[in-house]
Amino acid sequence: MDIAIVGAGAAGAGVAYALREADATVTVFEKSRGVGGRAATRRKHGCRYDHGANYVKANEDRVTDLVGSTLGTDGLVDVEEPVWTFDASGTIEEGRESDEHKWTYEAGITQLAKRLFAHTDATVELETRVGAIEREGEGWTLADVDGADLGTFDRLVLTPPAPQTAALLDATAWDHDLRNELREAVEAVDYRTVYSVLLHYDFELDRPWYALVNTDKEHDLGWLSREECKPGHVPAGESLLVAQMAPEWSRERYDDDPEVVKEDVADVVTALLGDERLATPDWTDRQGWRYALPEGGLEGDAHRRCAGHGLYVAGDWVVGEGRVGRALACGLDVGERLR
Ligand SMILES: Cc1cc2nc3c(=O)[nH]c(=O)nc-3n(C[C@H](O)[C@H](O)[C@H](O)COP(=O)(O)OP(=O)(O)OC[C@H]3O[C@@H](n4cnc5c(N)ncnc54)[C@H](O)[C@@H]3O)c2cc1C
Q1: Domain contains 29
Q2: Structural domain of 88
Q3: What was the pLDDT predicted at 99?
C-alpha cells in the first residue's frame, strides 16, 4: 500500500506516526524547507524562537502520552511562568492559574514533528509543493507545481490549511460529484490572519509573566510573550518578545512595508508595557500567517465518504480548533483509520 501525505505539520506528522508499524510505504510532500508547519522555529543572532505556535497544550491523553513521555523528554520545555491578561484599555491583570502544560523544546517547537517523523520510515520530500492531483484507476497521481510527476498512490491525505486544501481540490482531476462537494465544504472554513513580530533587546525584561493575552479581543495586539522563558531559546541578559497582532489589524497591515509594520508593533508594545526602551529593539523579525487559525470546523460528511475512495483530510480545520495538539490528534485518527 502506497500512501501520500501532503503537508508535514502536526497533522501530517500524526498520520505518519500512526502508520509507523503499518504495512505501507509512506511519502510526505512538504512545500517548506523543514517540517512542523505552523509549529515553526527560527534561529537568529544566537536566539531560537517559535514564531508560530508558542507551545503545545496537553489537551488529549494521547498527546500527553506522546509529548510527555513516548517521544522523549530530553530537551522538553514546560514553560512555568503564567499567562496574564490585558484588555482594550491596556490594563494588565493576573490570569487564572492553570496547571496545563505549555510544552515546547529547547531546540524549538519544530522538534515535535521531527521526533514524530523520526519514529517512522516515512520519506519526507521537502521543498516539494503539490500542485495537481489526478484520479487514475483506483489511485491518486500527484504532480508538483511545475508539472513534475510525484508518483501514484493508493491513498492520499491532504493536510494543508483549508484554503490551500481547497485550491488543491480545485486542481484535482476526478470526475465525481464528491470532489465538488468536498471542495465546497473545505472552502467554507475561514481562517484568521495573524502577523507575528519579534522584538529583540540586549537587556533583560523583568516581568512576572511568560505571556499576556488580550481577553476582550478589542486590542490591536492579541498576544505578547517572552521567549526567554523557554530554556535554550534566548541567551542570558537578553529579551525576545513575540507579538502576535489581532486578526483585523493583521489583515489590514499584511501587505504594508514590513519595516513600518515592525516599528508600529514596537510602539504598541511600548505603550502596553509602559517602558520606553521597548520602542527601539536592536533587531527584529516578522512572519505573516495568512492562514493562522481556523474559525470553525469542516461541516458535512463529504470527507468521510471520500475515504471510501482513498482520499482523506486532516488538520486543525477539520476539528475546528487552531491547536497543535488537536491537529496532531486529528492526524493520528486518520492514520489509525488508514491502518
Ligand atoms: C501565530 C500562531 C500562533 C499559534 N499559537 C498556538 C499555540 O500557542 N498553541 C497551539 O496549540 N496552537 C497554536 N497555533 C495553531 C497551530 O500552529 C496549528 O493549529 C497547528 O500547527 C496546525 O497544524 P496542521 O498540521 O493542521 O497544519 P500546518 O502546520 O499548517 O501544516 C500544513 C503543512 O502543509 C504544507 N503545505 C501546504 N500546502 C502544500 C502543498 N501544496 N504541497 C506541500 N505542502 C503543502 C505547509 O507548508 C505546512 O507545513 C498558532 C498558530 C499561529 C499561526
Answers
A1: yes
A2: 68-105+191-293
A3: 72
Question: Residue 216: inside a domain, yes or no?
Answer: yes
Yes or no: say if 114 and 17 are a contact pair by the CB < 8 Å rule: no
Residue 279 maps to a domain: yes
pLDDT tens for each residue of 136-187? 999 999 999 999 999 999 999 999 999 999 999 999 999 999 999 999 999 9
The residue behind cell 514546560 is 78
Residue 286 pLDDT? 98
Residue 187 near residue 267 (C-beta atoms within 8 A): no
Going from the Cα of 89 to the center of ligand 1, the distance in angstroms, rounded, reads: 31
Number of domains, the chain: 2
Question: Which of 324, 326, 328, 333 to mutate to test ligand 1, by most ligand atoms within 8 A of the CB atom?
Answer: 324
Question: Per-block average pLDDT, block size 10, for the chain (339 residues)?
Answer: 98 98 97 98 98 92 95 97 96 84 97 98 98 97 98 98 98 97 98 98 96 97 98 98 98 98 98 98 98 97 97 98 97 97
Is 63 within a domain? no
Q: Are residues 140 and 196 in the same domain?
A: no
3-state secondary structure of 97: coil
* 277 and 326 share one domain: no
Alpha carbon of 40 to ligand 1 centroid (Å): 8
- Looking at ligand 1, which residue's alpha carbon is closest to its atom 6? 53
Q: For ligand 1, atom 8, name the residue with the nearest CA.
A: 54
Grid cell for residue 60: 488529549
Nearest residue to 113 via CA among 7, 232, 4 = 7
Gap between the Cα atoms of 40 and 46, Å rounded? 17
| Closest ligand 1 atom, residue 7 Cα | 34
CATH of the domain at 178: 3.50.50.60
